[in-house]
């Protein structure tokens, strides 16, 4: 009588193993359809600012290791050579130059993405993801003059983010407070915040009037209200208990990014982690100061590398690495001497923020929009390099394709599906790209055309790229855009 029992036991065990195999296969299939997605978005990180793109003076071990495990793009672009428009394009799939009011915003600007717009986080929400924006925002908040002492709407929640922890604008602009889920963090109601970009409010000292109070001198602008020994753009008063300490910003926002991952480890998530580094003011934590040999800006690069490492380590610890597509990139090219007397230019020590590229932040030359861009998804993206032409404006369409969605008409009008290029399955991405800086430029294959315009002055080491003459460059032969061949190619210029 025991033999049938043994056979039943064997059958049960076999069925149990089969069920486990089916569950595992189903889980792998589900993971392939719905990977977690993390975009780590640096601020002002140039093409030559990290080791895997040629930097030798600063140390970016976490990013360099990540690049060996992923696909490193050599012709990837943000949409614009400055921050606000690049962020607008990344989240909406629309070129910012099409819409008025998408230039560099003051810290009290109203939100420039209309509630109800189907954005990149909205695409993920529709696919069942939890979504978060952590770090620098600079897309405006509210729909009129902001009352920083109340719930601020519209904001990230109205365009697809479930959770948000923000630097409202930039580190060099007031208000110098964090905003979590659209409320100022740590605000004392008895000390309300008032912000103004036209006139001084309250009795706070300013850099212009009290330079002796500054621990970092300003070079131009950046001479209004002093917070934490650094004068800013704009005036604020109140909110003493809510004000950030610049040296702790990276720690605070990285911790929030890590916590979001931990809280959503059992559920598909999309994290838009936009760091403050390496934007001015360069005020890295003391444990990074003096570590790069390239001054405060170099130290801030190494602090950014630490933030990247913390996110990657968290994914590894939670066993989420294989099921997470991570992109590390930047909002525009690198810049030095950007408003503060921080010796960012004097202390370069041979470091070239934009590598072999001409120009940088603000510029129509390649240094303005060609940025570091690395994508990793183990088992789905083969490690290596790609020279495919891609742009961050393509994220909305590309991730709609990844999550098997069809975008409605009139949504993300300038966004193309470049998923095959992102995954390394195709060597080509876009055919053309409009680059935006102090004007417009057109990329078509290796050709780069800059229309004639009003000559613009240099901004520190960042040439604006505009000339009274038409400019044409063959980037395959002249990556540094040194030889204008427009006169020799009149037919190309016409087309």
Explain how this protein is built:
The chain is of the alpha/beta class and 495 residues long. It has two domains: 34-186 and 238-430, Alkaline Phosphatase, subunit A (3-Layer(aba) Sandwich), CATH 3.40.720; 194-236, no CATH class. Helices cover 24% and strands 16% of the residues. The protein has ten helices and 20 strands. It has helices at 2-33, 61-69, 83-92, 120-126, 249-263, 295-317, 366-369, 395-402, 419-422, 490-494, and strands at residues 36-42, 71-73, 76-77, 130-136, 163-167, 179-180, 183-184, 194-196, 226-227, 230-231, 235-237, 269-274, 324-330, 373-376, 384-386, 390-391, 432-437, 439-444, 447-450, 471-474. Strands 7-6-5-4-12-1-13-14-2-15 form a ten-stranded mixed sheet, sandwiched between helices. Helix 2 (61-69) crosses helix 6 (295-317). The model is unreliable at 19-31 (pLDDT under 50).
Topology diagram in text:
Blueprint: H1 2-33, E1 36-42, H2 61-69, E2 71-73, E3 76-77, H3 83-92, H4 120-126, E4 130-136, E5 163-167, E6 179-180, E7 183-184, E8 194-196, E9 226-227, E10 230-231, E11 235-237, H5 249-263, E12 269-274, H6 295-317, E13 324-330, H7 366-369, E14 373-376, E15 384-386, E16 390-391, H8 395-402, H9 419-422, E17 432-437, E18 439-444, E19 447-450, E20 471-474, H10 490-494
Parallel strand pairs: 1-12, 1-13, 2-15, 3-16, 4-5, 4-12
Antiparallel strand pairs: 2-14, 5-6, 6-7, 8-11, 9-10, 13-14, 17-18, 18-19, 19-20
Give the tally of structural domains.
2
The total strand number stands at 20
Average the pLDDT over all residues and give the rounded result: 93
Largest sheet: 10 strands, mixed
Shape summary: globular
* CATH topology annotation of the largest domain: Alkaline Phosphatase, subunit A
What spatial order of strands do you see in the largest sheet? 7-6-5-4-12-1-13-14-2-15
Amino- and carboxy-terminal Cα gap: 89 Å
| CATH architecture classification of the largest domain | 3-Layer(aba) Sandwich
**Strand and helix order:** HEHEEHHEEEEEEEEHEHEHEEEHHEEEEH
Strand content: 15-25%
> Which superfamily, in CATH terms, is the homologous superfamily of the largest domain?
Alkaline Phosphatase, subunit A
């Amino acid at each position: 009588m025991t033999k049938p029992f043994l056979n039943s036991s064997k059958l049960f065990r076999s069925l149990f193993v089969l069920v486990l195999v089916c569950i595992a296969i189903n889980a792998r299939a589900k993971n392939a359809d719905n990977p977690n997605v993390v975009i780590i978005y640096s601020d002002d990180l140039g093409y030559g600012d990290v080791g895997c793109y040629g930097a030798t003076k600063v140390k970016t071990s976490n990013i360099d290791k990540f690049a060996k495990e992923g696909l490193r793009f050599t012709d990837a672009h943000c949409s614009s050579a400055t921050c606000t428009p690049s962020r607008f394009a990344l989240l909406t799939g629309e070129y910012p130059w099409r819409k008025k009011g998408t230039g560099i915003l003051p810290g009290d600007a109203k939100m420039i993405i209309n509630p109800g717009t189907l954005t990149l986080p909205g695409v993920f929400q529709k696919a069942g993801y939890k979504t978060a924006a952590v770090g620098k925002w600079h897309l405006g908040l509210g729909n009129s003059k902001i009352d920083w002492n109340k719930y601020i709407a519209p904001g990230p929640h109205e365009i697809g983010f479930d959770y948000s922890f923000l630097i409202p604008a930039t580190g060099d602009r007031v208000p110098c407070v964090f905003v979590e889920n659209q409320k100022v963090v740590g605000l004392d109601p008895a000390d309300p915040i008032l912000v103004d970009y036209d006139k001084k409010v309250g009795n706070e000292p300013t850099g212009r009037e009290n330079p002796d109070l500054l621990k970092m001198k300003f070079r131009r602008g950046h001479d209004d209200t002093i917070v934490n020994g650094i004068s800013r753009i704009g005036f604020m008063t109140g909110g003493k208990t809510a004000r950030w300490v610049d040296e702790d910003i990276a720690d605070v926002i990285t911790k929030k990014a890590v916590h979001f991952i931990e809280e959503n480890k059992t559920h598909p998530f999309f994290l838009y982690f936009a760091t403050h580094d390496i934007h001015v003011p360069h005020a890295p934590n003391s444990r990074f100061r003096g570590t790069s040999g390239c001054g405060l800006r170099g130290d801030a690069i190494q602090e950014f590398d630490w933030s990247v490492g913390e996110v990657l380590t968290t994914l590894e610890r939670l066993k989420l690495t294989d099921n997470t597509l991570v992109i590390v990139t930047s909002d525009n090219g690198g810049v030095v001497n950007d408003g503060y007397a921080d010796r960012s230019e004097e202390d370069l020590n041979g470091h070239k923020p934009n590598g072999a590229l001409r120009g940088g932040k603000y510029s129509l030359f390649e240094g303005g929009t060609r940025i570091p861009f690395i994508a990793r998804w183990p088992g789905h993206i083969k490690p290596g390099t790609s020279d495919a032409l891609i742009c961050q404006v393509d994220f909305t369409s590309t991730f709609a394709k990844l999550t098997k969605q069809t975008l409605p008409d009139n949504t993300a009008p300038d966004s193309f599906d470049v998923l095959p290029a992102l995954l390394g399955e195709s060597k080509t991405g876009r055919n053309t790209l409009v680059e935006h800086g102090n004007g417009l430029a057109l990329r078509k294959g290796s050709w780069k055309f800059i229309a004639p315009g009003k000559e613009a002055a240099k901004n520190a080491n960042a040439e604006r790229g505009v000339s009274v003459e038409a400019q044409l460059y063959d980037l395959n032969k002249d990556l540094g855009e040194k030889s204008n061949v427009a006169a020799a190619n009149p037919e190309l210029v016409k087309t």
